[in-house]
């Protein structure tokens, strides 16, 4: 009579990190090279983004330092109205003041800001996809004890780029569709209340309460889908499945462990978020002093702060991508898919010998401990 294997243990965050650390330490030079090639530019761009934005603001304000004085104060619109009314009353010809150069200056800053954000988003998106493809491939090979080669990892990042790109686009489109449905639902609810003579002003507390409820529900729904699709990028690299099938596969693997997976991703997100937030504040302050012409320890501390933050963020991203791949392997183990793969992996290194007792093959079963 066959006995059922014991149920798997709950997801252990420390065990996932420990396995990730073991794989990274076993191939430290390999992962260091991948980090310098893909993750360090990502971390550096995130760290200096606020500084570049402040530099644009400083450069723009330096061209017209008295632009605020050339405009009427926003708190005194009645003066302009009185001037217009008096001109109409006495039939004075109006003067058309040409402020096209001010309008051009006003438009220049938003265009530069939008261009900066677009370039940053494209750079971040491309390097993130390349990092996921190469690091996930390397961790998978390190998990099975296969040789990890730098050229093969780069090739994996390039060959899986299109599949990862399509999968990320599908995720963003689906999440945007969910958000759009919530916004339309909120709009129709407000219009429905207006039809039944329950007009709600945008300044009323009822409107604010309804908006908060919709926002909380929308955030919960988006988090639910993000958790379900959390390991889809690893599935694209490991199983060559992309698009909607990869999302379905991810939802199947994380089923029953959504709370643990949510805790896993929130932990990394909170750590990286706090680091990025503190870095942006310090960089904006020290960068402003540097742009203002201050010398001394502030400039050196500004450079050191960027270097240290970029290094820490690179390390966090490396462990995040590695732990995400290990999490995928754990989900497969829970579903009973990992034991057969490990048996097939190690069966290549052994010779099958016949036994005397009617030559019945002996099977090895992998159980959870």
TrEMBL record:
Highest taxon of the lineage: Eukaryota
Transmembrane parts of this sequence: 31-52, 114-140, 161-190, 206-225, 260-280, 300-322
Signal sequence, start to end: none
UniProt keywords, alphabetically: Membrane, Transmembrane, Transmembrane helix
Keyword Transmembrane: yes
Descriptive protein name: Uncharacterized protein
Organism from which the protein derives: Linum tenue
Lineage of origin: Eukaryota, Viridiplantae, Streptophyta, Embryophyta, Tracheophyta
